[in-house]
Amino acid sequence: MGAPPGWTRRRLTACGVEFVSAPQQKFYGTEAVLKDTTGNWFSLMERK
User: Fold this and answer.
1) DSSP single-letter state for residue 22
2) I want to staple 7 with a disulfide (CB 3.0 to 4.6 A). Which of 3, 23, 24, 38 is the partner?
3) CA distance 20 to 3
4) Among the residues of the chain, which ranges form H helices?
5) pLDDT tens digit sequence for 3-48
6) 33 close to 42: Cβ distance less than 8 angstroms
């Protein structure tokens, strides 16, 4: 059982993280790109 949909995104946004792209369906799974408060970029992925 995971967190409710959007819970992680809301929590990260409240901490100052900027989502550069919304979660998108790709051929390999779901991916979202974000940037932290110091400008580092991250790609979050969930495999199919």
Assistant:
1) E
2) 3
3) 22
4) 7-14
5) 666 678 888 889 999 999 988 999 999 999 999 999 999 998 899 8
6) yes
Residues in the chain: 48
For residues 20 and 33, what is the distance between their CA atoms, to the nearest angstrom? 5
pTM of the model: 0.68
Give residues with Cβ within 8 angstroms of 47, minimum separation 6. Answer: 28, 29
Structure tokens at 9: 């995104």
Q: Which residue has the tokens 């819970």?
A: 7
**Closest to 9 (Cα-Cα) out of 21, 27, 26:** 21
